[in-house]
Specification:
By secondary structure, the protein is mainly α. The chain is 88% helix and 0% strand. The radius of gyration is 18 Å and the shape is rod-shaped.
Length: 43
């Protein structure tokens, strides 16, 4: 907990940016896979 409180603003931005990237990948990858499966299935 002390390490979280002692983080700088820049570190906080980097951590939140990485977290947002992981969340966006987690949401985008399944939809992209479904789209690819549908496109390959239509062929």
């Amino acid at each position: 907990m002390t390490t979280l409180l002692s983080l700088n603003a820049d570190d906080l931005l980097i951590v939140t940016g990485i977290a947002l990237m992981f969340i966006s990948y987690a949401f985008l990858l399944p939809t992209e896979l479904k789209r690819a499966i549908k496109s390959s299935g239509n062929k």
